[in-house]
Amino acid sequence: MSREQQIVARARKAFESGRSRPLEYRIYQLKNLKRLFTEKQKEIADAINKDLNRSEVGTQMFETLGLEGEINLIIRKLKEWAAPRPVEKNLMTLSDTVYIQPEPLGVVLIIGAWNYPWAVTIQPLIGAIAAGNAAVVKPSEVCVHTAKVMENLLPLYIDKELYPVVTGGVPETQELLRQRFDHIFYTGNSMVGKVIMEAAAKHLTPVTLELGGKSPCYIDKTCDLSIACRL
């Protein structure tokens, strides 16, 4: 059994234990995640600076502040969002109690992107936690320092069995895609998006693909042209 198989199996076992379902547990995990942003802001910013040469102020503005606001909103609204919603009856259901009950999907896979390596990876994780899911997090291998910090810090603040981090490159991602998930969330280019959708189809796994491929930038004479072209 590969390392990735073991990680996914542990996440599924943790989900099936039911501990991610209570709203109190979800909120506790989200509060801990928010505390991570505050207590480890410098470590996060330093890692992103090494990967993308982004300033600490830029990281705070574009990578963490929005996430804090999202967590605050979820904490305020989660009880309302998770409550059963009554729906209109018809002749078939006239004598029944009819409602829609939101339920967790199960174990989801989140594959992040390099251009905002913290925000676009952690934002879907916030949603997964709020919905009561387990989530396997795969940060972009392009931002190696950010991925390492994510791998080191997340287990210190949130449930490491429910929300494990898998680092590495294409082989690790391919091995993850061989596993069965209940949803896959990917941010990146359309070429990889097709690969992910094909892998998901083997298990009839639903996907959310946030595909772009257009992150324009200026390349001046101080840049290493070979690296810029590769990115």
UniProtKB/TrEMBL annotation:
GO terms for biological process: aldehyde metabolic process; fatty acid metabolic process. Transmembrane segments: none annotated. One of its GO terms (cellular component) is endoplasmic reticulum membrane. Keywords: Endoplasmic reticulum, Fatty acid metabolism, Lipid metabolism, Membrane, Microsome, Oxidoreductase, Phosphoprotein, Transmembrane, Transmembrane helix. One of its GO terms (molecular function) is 3-chloroallyl aldehyde dehydrogenase activity. InterPro entries: Ald_DH/histidinol_DH (IPR016161), Ald_DH_C (IPR016163), Ald_DH_CS_GLU (IPR029510), Ald_DH_N (IPR016162), Aldehyde_DH_dom (IPR015590), Aldehyde_DH_NAD(P) (IPR012394). Belongs to the aldehyde dehydrogenase family. This is Aldehyde dehydrogenase family 3 member A2. The lineage of its organism: Eukaryota, Metazoa, Chordata, Craniata, Vertebrata.
